[in-house]
Amino acid sequence: MNNQAMQAATYRRTSDWQYVRGMRLLDLASLQGGENVLDLGCGTGQLTFELARRVAPMGKVIAIDPDVERLKIAQATMPPDIRNLTFFEAKAENLTQIADQSIDLIFSNYVIHWIPDKNSCFEEIIRCLHPGGRCVMELVGELMPFLRDVTILTGEPGRKLVNKFCCLTQNEWIGFFKQNNLIVEHTDWPDLDFEFNTFCDFLDWWEGTTHGAFLRTMLPGDAIQQMQQQYADRVTFGGNAFQGVVRKPHSPERSADN
């Protein structure tokens, strides 16, 4: 098993909290049977399968992710009852597999904070949505100080990883949506709370969720031992997410303020 495959497997094993958040986001999406859905950054597929079931039998789901190894896990674990789901390797900024105005709902759970070129990403989102279609998303609102502090202990690789978190404030998101003539139906800035039984459990999750951009082997010699002693009982930290629901206007004349 190569390193990318190992990180994908670790991500699948340690990403329960994202699944829980994603199930809440699914409820917010108010899916209807027969809708066509794009899962933007499907990962290893647990939420994608839920999307497919909620729009079946007439609705269809297209799921994209740039991580080939995560896609392999999703395809290998797809339940046999699901027949309305297609996977593609793709980036959110370049959705050439998706036809114009063909999607009712774009669903994205903890992905968009990784995307530096949000203008290109939303150009594609707007192109793919049919008039009146919606995008429902949750993502990191700000990189948690604990994650930042641990990550930059690795030096230059850690600083590069920290800089990959392309986060906006809630007000910046609202302004961005309005500039793109999207109707803002809902925004929130919910608290995120993380708890791991051991520091090694935390490291497993952080390696997996960062696609291996962070590795514990990058930490200086005695850092892990010191942190294991410091966090002997458990590791807890918090931060904030951004949650949003936006809709493409039915006509280009309609303002995002209406």
Question: Which short descriptors sum up this protein?
Answer:
258 residues, eight-stranded mixed sheet, 10 helices, 8 strands, disordered C terminus
Compact summary:
With 258 residues, the protein is α/β, with parallel strands linked by helices.
What is the overall number of helices?
10
Average pLDDT, to the nearest integer?
94
Number of strands: 8
The main pleated sheet reads as: 8 strands, mixed
Strand content: 15-25%
Poorly predicted ranges: 254-258
Termini separation (Å)? 53 Å
Return the structural class: alpha/beta
Order of helices and strands: HHEHEHEEHEHHHEEHHE
Q: Give Rg in angstroms.
A: 19 Å
Helix content: 25-40%
- Tell the overall outline: globular
Task: Describe what you observe in this structure.
- Strands 1, 2, 3, 4, 5, 6, 7 and 8 form an eight-stranded mixed β-sheet that branches.
- This protein has helices spanning 3-14, 16-29, 46-55, 68-76, 118-128, 145-152, 156-163, 170-179, 199-209, 223-230; strands at residues 36-40, 60-65, 85-89, 103-109, 129-140, 183-188, 191-196, 235-247.
- It has 258 residues and is of the alpha/beta class.
- Helix content is 39%, strand content 23%.
- The longest helix is centred in the N-terminal third of the chain and has 14 residues, at 16-29.
- α1 (3-14) crosses α9.
- It has ten helices and eight strands.
- It is globular, with a radius of gyration of 19 Å.
